[in-house]
Every structure is written in structure tokens, then in C-alpha cells.
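[Discussion] Sanity-checking designs against the backbone

I'm trying to build intuition for which residues belong where. Below is a C-alpha cell string of 269 positions. I'd appreciate it if someone posts a full sequence so I can compare it with mine line by line.
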């Protein structure tokens, strides 16, 4: 009995073991971990990093440039060959400057013209009488004075006598000569003085005002102090005045104005 129980139990255990094995997966035998030795690596020399290549671009096929048409040029007509240069010519002779005579002559000195008139006027009394009553040198001084005047001269002069008022107008050299002749006969000790002016460092300067005339020639004027004596009684007179002279292109006086104002007699004290 006991044997049967043992057998029964043995069979039961065996069944249980089989059933257990059927349910339990077979045990896997784990291999011991193997130490993996890395393969020896050969060190490569450092490489220079390659330049980064840009992403490939689709290259367009090269375009053949269109041939440029040059601008149209106007063709010049063929020029004839230049003629040979003329033979060398001798340089022209140096030009001789025109003589000084061709240049415009300088005008007369106004001061010299005034002095010349004054000297000839004062000389009208420089003549003498002989015992026989003959005049010596009077015609010469009158003619010397008349050399300054043109034939058609016009003169405006002081009156000849005390009763006349205003100036006397003389036309032509013949009337002027009569007036000059009368001055030489009736007046002595003629002393017409060219007035002088002093200012700053300029002392006793004789002033003559001059201007060119539109029709040619020159006009001058200056101030005077007139003094003379009568031949018949030697009474002396004086007064301020002025002289105006117009010279033509030939250097002759064709207009005269002689003013003597405020004539007064000089008396001894």
C-alpha cells in the first residue's frame, strides 16, 4: 500500500514536473561578459579641413556674347596730300619806329603863353621921343604885339574914355591894331602884373587856367593887377582884372577879353 502511495506520489510529482517544464521557457545560459578589446587604431595625421564646397549650383551654359557692332563711322573723303612747305623766307627787316615828328606835337605851355602876352603888352610904353619930337621904337612894339593875333580876331576891351560905359567890341586885326596903337600913345609906365597865389608850402604861384577848345586850339585865362599912368598928366590908375585868350590851331589869338574892374586913381599921401 505504501508502495502504491509512493508510486502514486512519484507519478504525480513527475506530472507536475513535466507540466512545470512545459510552462517554464528553457533557461538560457548566459555567457560571461567578454571584454571587447577595441582594435588598434592607427592615428592618421591631422588633415587640413577641406574647404567647404558650396552647394552645387546648376551652372548655366556659357552664353556666347553677341558680337558688338561698331558705330557707323562716316568715312572722310580721301584727303589730298599736303603740299610741300614753301621755302623758308628771310625774316622781314626790323621796323624802324616812326620819327618823333610824326607823333602828335605837344601843345604849348599855358603859362608861357600868358607870360608872352604880358611881356608884349607892358612893352607898349617902352619907346622914346627925340628932341625933334620923333617917335623911336613905337611901331616896333606895336607890331610885336600884333604878331600874336589872327586876322579875324575879335577883342572885347575896356572903354577908351571916362564917359563910355561897358566894354568895346573890336572885330578884325585892323581895329585891334588901332586900339593897341592908341594905348601905346596915351599910356606910360604900363605895369600889368600876373597875380600870384600862396597856399601851404606853395608861395607865389602863378595860376593859369587852360582848356582845349572843341574846334581846335586852346583857351587860357589868368588874373592880373593892372597899373598905368596917363602920358599927358602922369596920373596913375590901377584895378584888378583878368585876361581871356583863345588860341587857334595855328597858335594865333582869335579872341581876346580884357577886363579891368574897379579902376581907382593912385594918389600920393
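Best answer:
Here's mine. Compare freely.
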Amino acid at each position: 500500500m505504501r508502495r502504491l502511495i509512493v508510486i502514486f506520489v512519484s507519478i504525480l510529482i513527475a506530472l507536475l514536473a513535466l507540466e512545470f517544464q512545459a510552462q517554464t521557457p528553457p533557461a538560457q545560459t548566459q555567457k560571461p561578459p567578454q571584454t571587447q578589446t577595441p582594435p588598434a587604431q592607427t592615428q592618421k595625421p591631422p588633415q587640413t579641413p577641406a574647404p567647404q564646397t558650396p552647394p552645387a549650383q546648376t551652372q548655366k551654359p556659357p552664353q556666347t556674347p553677341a558680337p558688338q557692332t561698331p558705330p557707323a563711322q562716316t568715312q572722310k573723303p580721301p584727303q589730298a596730300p599736303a603740299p610741300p612747305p614753301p621755302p623758308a623766307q628771310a625774316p622781314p627787316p626790323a621796323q624802324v619806329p616812326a620819327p618823333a615828328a610824326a607823333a602828335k606835337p605837344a601843345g604849348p605851355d599855358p603859362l608861357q603863353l600868358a607870360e608872352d602876352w604880358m611881356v608884349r603888352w607892358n612893352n607898349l610904353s617902352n619907346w622914346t621921343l627925340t628932341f625933334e619930337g620923333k617917335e623911336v621904337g613905337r611901331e616896333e612894339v606895336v607890331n610885336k604885339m600884333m604878331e600874336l593875333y589872327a586876322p579875324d580876331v575879335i577883342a572885347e576891351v575896356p572903354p577908351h574914355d571916362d564917359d563910355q560905359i561897358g566894354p568895346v567890341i573890336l572885330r578884325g586885326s585892323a581895329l585891334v591894331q588901332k586900339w593897341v596903337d592908341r594905348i601905346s600913345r596915351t599910356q606910360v609906365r604900363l605895369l600889368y602884373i600876373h597875380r600870384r597865389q600862396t597856399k601851404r608850402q606853395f608861395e607865389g604861384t602863378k595860376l593859369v587856367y587852360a582848356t582845349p577848345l572843341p574846334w581846335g586850339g586852346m583857351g587860357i585865362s589868368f588874373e592880373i593887377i593892372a597899373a598905368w599912368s596917363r602920358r599927358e598928366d602922369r596920373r596913375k590908375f590901377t584895378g584888378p582884372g583878368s585876361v581871356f585868350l583863345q588860341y587857334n590851331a595855328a597858335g594865333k589869338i582869335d579872341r581876346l577879353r580884357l577886363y579891368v574892374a574897379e579902376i581907382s586913381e593912385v594918389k600920393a599921401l
